[in-house]
Amino acid sequence: MTSTPNREGAVPVTAAHRILVLNSGSSSVKYQLLDMRDSSRLAVGLVERIGEETSRLVHSPLTADGDGGGGEGSGKRERTGPIADHEAALKAVADELTRDRLGLDSPELAAIGHRVVHGGLKFSAPTVITDEVLTEIERLVPVAPLHNPANITGIRTAQALRPDLPQVAVFDTAFHTTMPESAARYAIDIETADAHRIRRYGFHGTSHAFVSRETAKLLGKDPAEVNVIVLHLGNGASASAVRGGECVDTSMGLTPLEGLVMGTRSGDIDPAVTFHLKRVAGMSTDEIDVLLNKKSGLVGLCGDNDMREIRRRIDEGDQRALLAFEIYIHRLKKYIGAYYAVLGRVDAVVFTAGVGENAAPVRAAAIAGLEELGLAVDADLNAVRTDSARLISPEYARVAVAVVPTDEELEIARQTYALVNA
Fold it and tell me: What share of the chain is helix, strand, coil (3-state, %, to 5)?
């Protein structure tokens, strides 16, 4: 791939400078097209309810022709109607991009980057997808049965549409492969664990990688000099301890069920609860799986998994909502304290993702009472709503508390572009 100097003549920029990022779920495809010359978005969209009569495609071109200008073709477009499968979904996406002169056949498209949830121990970095790579991703389906099959479908469909184009897998688990064995292993029979790949892998890795680097930038330091506790709080939630740019511990484990209280997942639980439910309640393995993954967490405690609704109910005196919030915060504090101990020295605690970026009461409650650890939140700074990375701790605080918006699609695009231009 040929390169030409950029305007400053320092950083090489290839003629193919666009990356399409695909996040394929079991019945959906999220996508973004980015221009890596300035990390700008050219188009974003979503196809949902694939395979149903009520399939829906929402496409938002952010420029008409990729040159930064608007004009005809700009503005969100939406269409509904049956989209049979992922192949039809991606063809529909390609059609929408072509309408905006941003088509998959463009010579400016350098590669397609795919979010792949589980890469096991084999994949610790972005990887160009080959038949061998796909085979390994398929081998990991038993430890990611909800995610890896959909990721594979998206990859195969994209390969069929552009067989000549590099396809790159960026793994949710990759950032956490730097965990030491003392953090990654469970204390069970080691031969059994190794035979069945049972260990802690962690997830949300692209978010933790992006946010930890952006936090270092916010502090004006090199990531290699900074120790950060990252709290990715969305419907799914995870924490990580990042020392010098590398993950040394994270809250999710073999699956995304372990760790923090989440929207519908229980997080940490005594494993014997599952045996008890099977023996005493007569629940099947599948029923217990549904209970812990889809009917627990905040929704199990109070019937809501939207933090805005929970806070509204608390303001109205709802005791179940208050209990759910207090359990959520209690678990969050435990992980902050635990990861403080793991790191020894902490430069920043940072909140990100939907709840972390927008729920000021969660941030305030999670940090409250941790003054002896050098942590504090300034109420006025915490109340500010902005899309920018910012500090919310007072000047006197020994440890910074920050809010840093995550950008997993940009992280996937950056890793993809760096790999194909290496």
Answer: 40, 20, 40
Q: What amino acid is encoded at 252 in this protein?
A: M
- Do residues 412 and 204 touch, judged by C-beta distance below 8 A? no
- Per-residue pLDDT band at 310 (split at 50, 70, 90): very high
- Beta strands per DSSP E along 234-331: 237-243, 246-250
99, 109, 311 from 266: Cα distances, Å: 44, 42, 20
The pLDDT tens digits of the residues spanning 104-161 come to 889 999 999 999 999 988 899 999 999 999 999 999 888 777 788 889 988 998 999 8
* 38 counts as catalytic: no
Q: Which two tokens stand for residue 213?
A: 């680097």
How far is C-alpha 412 from the geometric centre of its chain's CA atoms?
10
Give residue 283's Cα distance to chain centre: 32
Long-range contacts, 38-47 (Cβ 8 Å, 24+): 39/410, 39/413, 39/414, 40/68, 42/18, 42/66, 42/100, 42/102, 43/96, 43/97, 43/100, 43/102, 45/93, 45/96, 47/83, 47/89, 47/92, 47/93
pLDDT of residue 74: 55
CA 165 from chain centre, in angstroms, equals 25
* pLDDT of 49 strictly over 50: yes
CA-angle at 348, arms to 344 and 349, nearest 5°: 95
pLDDT of residue 14: 57
What is the rounded CA–CA span in Å between residue 330 and residue 24? 34
User: From the candidates 35, 100, 172, 407, which is the catalytic residue?
Assistant: 172
Report the sign of the C-alpha dihedral through residues 272, 275, 281, 286, in that order.
positive
pLDDT given at position 62: 86
pLDDT at 66: 42
Contact 247, 363 (CB under 8 A): no
Would you give the DSSP letter of residue 351?
Answer: E
